[in-house]
């Protein structure tokens, strides 16, 4: 990662949960980090309203953040007069950044692109397994201890199915590229996606109602917001054809949980849900026991060795700052309403 154009070491402060520093940055990446930067306070700042934090922020050019970063508001920024960038080594920045950061012209970078890789991989697997009726067959085997029975099973397999992708986000675009390997018709709904880009991604752009009516498998990749909350309500769920599979690796609030539960209890639809609303579901939710439902505990995003990809991307961004190059993964204030 060494760069002969380097202008000098950055002065950074690190604000995240203590355990996440070693989780996100392996030994090699940490060595690269410390080659690039001088840390203004040894260790990790878990609070930004202490005297120790104030001393660290006073000389920091860059704030390296991660999961559990405290809120960065005007009071924190007043303590950091030299701050010119926030480099986030995790996904969304909405949980801790305020508009004041952008108002002061501070650059922001996020590792959301790196985090999109495992989510897209998980979603692709869910599409294939959902179409294969993985949950139903697994439940059948556990219940009967016998060979598979296909009687009464919805249409099975990916050959000739229609996949509806809601949201051409980073993750949505990766999913669109992955499903091109399937023998499937691909639809996409995203009001901000130009038709030419949709075509380049191998998808036909349609309105959401049409996507619901036509999709054998529907997968959600829209951000959470006022216009997307419960976008899959009772009316739209009813548009889905019998046997359709609903996949959610985005945000639980994009689906009306009560309406989806009502559909799933009848067995008309299948679902693979990595996120729910609420999360987790109440202990008495019938979704835990239904053969046509697979629930996972928010595992699609980076876990285990996957999180090292996020730390490596953050260090790449620090390298760019140190060598006077533009950020590769900037987050812009006007884009916040439309991104996760």
From TrEMBL:
Residues 43-331 form the D-isomer specific 2-hydroxyacid dehydrogenase catalytic domain. One of its GO terms (molecular function) is hydroxypyruvate reductase [NAD(P)H] activity. InterPro entries: D-isomer_2-hydroxyacid_DH (IPR050223), D-isomer_2_OHA_DH_cat_dom (IPR006139), D-isomer_DH_CS (IPR029753), D-isomer_DH_NAD-bd (IPR006140), NAD(P)-bd_dom_sf (IPR036291). It holds the Pfam family 2-Hacid_dh_C. Keywords: NAD, Oxidoreductase. The keyword 4Fe-4S does not apply. One of its GO terms (cellular component) is cytosol. Signal peptide: none annotated. Residues 127-300 form the D-isomer specific 2-hydroxyacid dehydrogenase NAD-binding domain. It comes from the Bacteria. Belongs to the D-isomer specific 2-hydroxyacid dehydrogenase family. This is Dehydrogenase.
């Amino acid at each position: 990662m060494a760069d002969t154009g380097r202008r000098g070491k950055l002065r950074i402060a690190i604000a995240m949960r203590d355990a996440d520093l070693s989780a996100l940055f392996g030994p090699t990446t940490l060595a690269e980090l410390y080659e690039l930067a001088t840390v203004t306070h040894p260790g990790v700042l878990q609070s930004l309203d202490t005297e120790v934090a104030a001393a660290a922020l006073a000389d920091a050019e860059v704030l390296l953040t991660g999961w559990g970063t405290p809120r960065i508001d005007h009071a924190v920024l007043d303590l950091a007069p030299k701050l010119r960038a926030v480099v986030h080594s995790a996904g969304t920045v909405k949980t801790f950044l305020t508009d004041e950061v952008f108002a002061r012209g501070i650059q922001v970078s996020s590792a959301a692109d790196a985090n999109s890789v495992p989510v897209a991989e998980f979603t692709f697997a869910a599409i294939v397994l959902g179409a294969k009726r993985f949950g139903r067959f697994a439940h059948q085997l556990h219940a009967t201890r016998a060979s598979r029975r296909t009687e009464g099973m919805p249409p099975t397999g990916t050959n000739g199915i229609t996949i509806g992708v809601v949201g051409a986000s980073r993750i949505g675009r990766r999913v669109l590229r992955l499903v091109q390997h399937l023998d499937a018709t691909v639809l996409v709904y995203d009001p901000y996606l130009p038709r030419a880009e949709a075509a380049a991604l191998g998808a036909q752009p349609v309105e959401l109602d049409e996507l619901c009516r036509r999709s054998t498998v529907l997968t959600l990749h829209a951000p959470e917001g006022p216009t997307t909350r419960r976008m899959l309500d009772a009316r739209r769920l009813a548009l889905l054809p019998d046997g359709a599979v609903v996949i959610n690796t985005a945000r639980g609030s994009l689906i009306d949980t009560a309406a989806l539960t009502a559909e799933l209890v009848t067995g008309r639809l299948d679902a693979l849900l990595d996120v729910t609303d609420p999360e987790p579901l109440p202990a008495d939710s019938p979704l835990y026991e239904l053969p046509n439902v697979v629930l996972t505990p928010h595992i699609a995003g980076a876990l285990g060795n996957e999180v090292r990809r996020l730390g490596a991307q953050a260090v790449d961004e620090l390298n760019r700052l140190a060598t006077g190059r533009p950020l590769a993964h900037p987050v812009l204030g006007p884009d916040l309403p439309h991104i996760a």
